Amino acid sequence: MSVEIDVGLENAVNVKVPHPETQKLDLGPDALISSKLRFRLIVGGVALLAAVLGLYLYFHNRESTDDAQVDGHITPIAAKIYGRVAQVQVRDNQQVKAGQVLVQLDPADYQAAMTRPKAPSLLPKAKPAPPA
Questions:
Q1: Are 85 and 108 in contact (CB under 8 A)?
Q2: Structure confidence by residue, pLDDT tens digits, 93-130
Q3: Closest CA to 122 of 72, 114, 43
Q4: Distance in angstroms (rounded) separating the CA atoms of residues 12 and 7
Q5: CA dist 4 to 1, 7, 10, 12, 18, Å?
Q6: pTM reported for the whole predicted model
Q7: Rounded distance between C-alpha atoms, residue 62 and residue 75, angstroms
Q8: Where are the beta strands (DSSP E) in the chain?
Q9: Given 3-state DSSP classes, what are the helix, strand and coil percentages for the chain, each rounded to the nearest 5?
Q10: Which of 42, 43, 73, 85 is the most exposed place for a label (fewest CB within 10 A)?
Q11: What is the SS3 assignment for 122?
């Protein structure tokens, strides 16, 4: 018995390769996802996305520590003048901008300080004592 084998690229064109037949799938109504199941999957996905977003917003600024110490940024502020605070214009931990009024001082101390130099001139001048 003899077998004939063609070798070489020039003979590759002559080789016939059997093509697999494509199978036609018969999809019935049971094979497709029902509309109720699709609706439930969409609602479940939206609920899951909302839960993940809610957890992210809740925990994104949270600090945790094992040694009960948290690093933070402390910015010292100082007044150019001293006085009693009449009204605070900001809340705790509120972000402020440069030049924003933080507190209002009681003006009574400053008014008293301004009238003090004028006070001696407001008093009547004393008459000189008569010669003895």
A1: no
A2: 888 888 888 888 888 878 877 777 665 555 566 666 67
A3: 114
A4: 8
A5: 10, 10, 16, 15, 19
A6: 0.31
A7: 21
A8: 85-88, 103-105
A9: 35, 5, 60
A10: 73
A11: helix
